[in-house]
Amino acid sequence: MKTMKKLFALLLALTLCLSLGVCAFAEETEETEETTPIEAVEYFTKTYVVNNATNGTANIVPAETLTFTVECTGKPDRYTAGDEDDLLVVGDGNTYAVSGASLTYEIPLTFNGGVTTGLEVGYYYYTITEANENTSQGVEYGTTTANENVIYVTVLVSYDETNNNAIDVKMYLAQSEGVGKYESIENTYSLGSLTVSKTVTGNLSDTRDVFLVDVTFTSASAVNSTVSYSGGVEVTDDEGTVTVPASGTVDFVVNAAGGYTGAVTIAVSDGTDVVFTDIPEGVTYTVVEHDYTDGDENTANGGYDKAKYEYSDENETIASGDTDTVTIANNKGTEVRTGVSLDSLPYVLVLAAVLALGGVMIARKRRVEE
Fold this sequence. Notes:
By secondary structure, this protein is of the alpha+beta class. The protein has 2 helices and 21 strands. The chain has helices spanning 2-32, 345-369; strands spanning 39-51, 64-74, 88-90, 95-98, 104-112, 122-130, 139-143, 151-160, 166-172, 184-201, 211-219, 227-230, 235-236, 242-244, 248-250, 252-254, 260-268, 273-280, 284-289, 308-311, 323-331.
């Protein structure tokens, strides 16, 4: 009887062990059947070239978000899901934010084939183009060394024979393996400068006189870098508070037309040159001096003739490498009265000549009579 009990206990224990083993195997089998994402990551380079930056290129690149378009130009015939364009993603949802603190950015390309059951082996071909959305004024978007605005990507999906024929993904920055390889897209950021100069003339002018000038910049797209100026005259009130600084930066805001406007008032005097630097290409400007014609010759900082403007660029538009100048001339003078009318001077000279000739003739006649 004892022997039977021992055999029964042993059989029960063995049954329990086998049942636990079956559960463990079932759990393990279920885990291996879970679908696993197939993913590959590669990078291409985004480069900015800055033309004519006055204060160096550090932190001069505009901070902006770039947009890219991904198109699948070829795929295996067996892949019919219809989402082949979406398998390859640039950056974050085909956008990438550049900080403006560098000239070079490494932008990720992610190929996500979804699950093992949905991806077919073969080659997938893609083109990536950067959208020229004129996000920032002065930037020419999306060119490569040999092929404008295009990055080619080839993705090879195959079986890994060394790993139980698991799906393997490789990505190449080329039209095909080793062919048409362009690894970077280049953006060019072009800048220029503007100088506002002042000259004062006239025998009643005072070189100590200070003139206020409004300088306004207008841009079709956002100005995402810093336009600065220096060289002006600092103006303070009676309490010593600066009301017009000698230097500063130009802040741009959205205008009624949907573009951007930056305005600043500067102070100038005779011989002053106020220089605005790092202005993006395509920005237009206006320069208008306040009115100083009120008063007469004895009016301090008044009584001047209407200001005259001389522009180096009649279009008043910044181009790459421009060093545009606007010279404002003010005159304040009066005619010096000498008591002699210069308008009658020729007649006076003729009369003097006649009198002199008459004197000579009279003198000669007396000599003859003697």
